[in-house]
From TrEMBL:
Domain Glucose-methanol-choline oxidoreductase C-terminal: 483-620
Domain Glucose-methanol-choline oxidoreductase N-terminal: 39-353
Chain coiled-coil ranges: none
Signal peptide (UniProt feature, chain positions): 1-20
Protein name according to UniProt: GMC oxidoreductase
Top-rank taxon: Eukaryota
Similarity section: Belongs to the GMC oxidoreductase family.
Keywords: Signal
Record-linked Pfam families: GMC_oxred_C, GMC_oxred_N
Length: 634
């Protein structure tokens, strides 16, 4: 316990921090009848993007904005608790209850589709991992439009900086845990914080160092630097209060403006169109939890003098467009919806990160790397101390969410056959792996994406592999950062207006996904079982098991265990050229419709190799400037 004692002393000497509830902000309504008849902008969705854009547009004190949110405005402790990272997601009252269609390549399993249903959206319930991805992730977006696009790493970096207020870890923890960071990649003006816990388990540092035992692995200096590697990253947490920092706390709670209105518990029924011009939004009271929509509910219609901004997220933004008559004509006709704008890409190109349920364990974490996160459960002295320092000054292990370190590695680092799989992907008949009857423009966009990924598979600029380190004996989350398969989110043709959309991940539709994920499992075996840095740690494989070695065996394992979602739904209103199945242009304007933009994860054309929350904040910050000032000159 000598090592433990040094940590106890360090934490106990930290200064206690007082904290208080946030002040109430601008006007909030519970009933559509209370809102004004007209606003300059009407924003559909009070989540990560919606609140960010609303805050920025109303900064002048004159521009009027109404945000319409399905969920409630809540001060529940489950939304702000940091410890463990999953308190918000575990509180079902703040989550949509959506199930996918049976996944034919996953033995017809039905997958939970999770998204936040509360003011703040998914930023209120996510795992608080503050990840950005690589520069190539964002240069890829711009490449779909050509060399003069402003949607690039350099074009977005100022908005990543603007989006978050980075507070470095305290000096003692930085030194003892060997945390590295570079403030040049971060800003310090936002109301949304990227903070750090006041404690790190020594085992986490040891597990990071163990990656140096594998050839080609780099240790990156900062998570925001835009390069793959193993690195430390912050938490969406205000380090002064040690509470979750999210869109509500950063872009609503302390914003006192008479021109910023929010109506909650309201379901948008459609975007009002005059021909092909968006003029407003109609909405009704949201149904009680677990109840179907009420067709007789009173309808409120609000006029948008300038624009309607759709920010309902990767699952609901395409649904709102489709019920408003904007989308693939075949989908709308099947649902009995009149087509106003035939836009084939709406609801297509659906993506999420895939979670691989492989499991490994270390039987003997060395004493030099203790305490581990396991010790918090098994060592009474440690757990008692943890409770004491948390009660005294909100420090210690309870300030850790899901962790702050992980590997984000390129494919050539993890696979000896990266060149072959790159060539295999480039040579595919890509349209064959899309839903039957996909529009030619959607197929063209998918081909462009796959050719970009083929290049990425053979270079070291895009991370495909992610292993989250949590300082314990069991392996952390193992994620495929760039799945090749594409799904759909379309209205339910039997009841498009009063049921959730039909979500189909189409997991493993592209067979190379299983091959790539198989190599992700093989590399993880090396880290745990064939690594000079961990050879004395007693590594063992729990699943899929040592006998599962071939591509065919690993594909079978994945069919029974893969989750096609880590709750990062994206891509369904893609920002791509119209001829590539795009839904919005580079100013996020919906093709064929005036005065309508989409600003949320649905516009992401290809997923970044990262948790999507930080990306959505940056998109929203950039969108606010596009709305106010127009496109930048490149």
């Amino acid at each position: 316990m000598a090592r433990l004692s040094s940590f106890f002393v360090a934490i106990l000497t930290l200064t206690p921090t007082a904290y208080s509830r946030h002040l109430r902000a601008s006007k909030v309504f519970l009933d559509g009848r209370q809102v004004q008849n007209e606003y300059d902008y009407v924003i559909i969705g009070g989540g990560t993007a919606g609140l960010t854009v609303a805050d920025r547009l109303t900064e002048d004190g004159k521009t009027t904005v109404l945000v319409i949110e399905y969920g409630v405005l809540s001060e529940a402790a489950s939304l702000t608790t940091v410890a463990g990272g999953f308190s918000g997601m575990s509180d079902s009252q703040f989550m949509y209850d959506i199930r996918s269609v049976p996944q034919v390549n996953l033995r017809n399993r039905v997958i939970s589709v999770l998204a936040g249903k509360v003011v703040g959206g998914s930023s209120a319930v996510n795992a608080m991992m503050t990840i950005r991805g690589t520069a190539e992730d964002y240069d890829r977006w711009g490449a779909f439009f050509g060399k003069n696009s402003h949607w690039t790493w350099e074009g977005l970096l100022p908005y990543f900086k603007k989006a978050l207020n980075f507070v470095p870890p305290n000096a003692d923890i930085t030194r003892t845990a060997n945390i590295t960071y570079d403030t040049s990649f971060w800003g310090n003006t936002s109301g949304v914080y990227a903070g750090w816990p006041s404690y790190q388990f020594p085992a986490t540092t040891a597990q990071m160092e163990a990656f140096k035992g594998l050839p080609g692995v780099e240790i990156a200096s900062d998570s925001g630097s835009g390069v793959p590697g193993v690195y430390w990253y912050p938490t969406f947490m205000d380090p002064k209060t040690v509470l979750r920092s999210f869109a509500k706390t950063g872009h609503y709670d302390n914003v006192k403006r008479a021109n910023y209105h929010l109506v909650t518990q309201s379901k948008v029924t459609k975007i009002v169109l005059d021909g092909t011009t968006a003029t407003g939004v109609s909405f009704v009271p949201a149904p009680a939890r677990g109840q179907p929509g009420n067709t007789a509910a009173p309808v409120t219609t609000v006029t948008a003098r300038k624009e309607v901004i759709l920010a309902a997220g990767g699952v609901h933004s395409p649904q709102v467009l489709q019920v408003s008559g904007i989308g693939p004509k075949k989908v709308l006709s099947a649902a009995g919806i009149d087509t106003i704008v035939d836009l084939p890409g709406v609801g297509q190109n659906f993506q999420d990160h895939g979670m691989i349920s492989a499991s490994f364990q270390f039987a003997r974490i060395p004493q030099s790397a203790r305490p581990s996160s396991d010790d918090l459960r098994t060592n009474r002295t440690l757990s008692t101390w943890s409770s004491q320092v948390w009660a005294a000054n909100r420090t210690g292990p309870n300030s850790i969410a899901t962790g702050n370190s992980a590997a984000w590695l390129s494919f050539p680092v993890i696979s000896p056959r990266s060149a072959k799989l790159s060539a295999d992907l480039a040579a595919q008949n890509h349209a064959a792996y899309l839903p039957t009857g996909s529009d030619p423009t959607v197929a063209a966009g998918y081909r462009a994406q796959m050719l970009s990924y083929a290049s990425a598979l053979s270079n070291n600029n895009t991370a495909f592999y992610n292993l989250v380190l949590q300082g314990g004996s069991a392996s952390g989350l193992l994620v495929d950062l760039h799945p090749l398969s594409r799904g759909t989110v379309n209205v339910n043709p039997a009841n498009p207006h009063n049921t959730e959309p039909q979500v189909d991940y189409r997991a493993l539709a592209n067979p190379l996904d299983a091959t790539i994920m198989g190599d992700i499992v093989r590399f993880t075996r090396k880290y745990y079982l064939d690594n000079p840095k961990t050879k004395d740690w007693g590594g063992r494989e729990v699943s899929p098991g040592a006998s599962v070695t071939t591509d065919e065996q690993l594909a079978t394992f994945l069919s029974s265990s893969l989750s096609p979602s880590v709750y990062h739904p994206a891509g369904t209103c893609a920002m791509m050229p119209l001829e590539l199945g795009g839904v919005v242009d580079e100013e996020l304007k919906v093709y064929g419709v005036k005065n309508l933009r989409v600003v949320d994860a649905s516009v992401i054309p290809t997923l970044p190799g990262a948790n999507t929350c930080q990306t959505v904040y940056a998109i929203a910050e950039k969108a606010a400037d596009l709305i106010r000032y127009g496109a930048p000159k490149v």
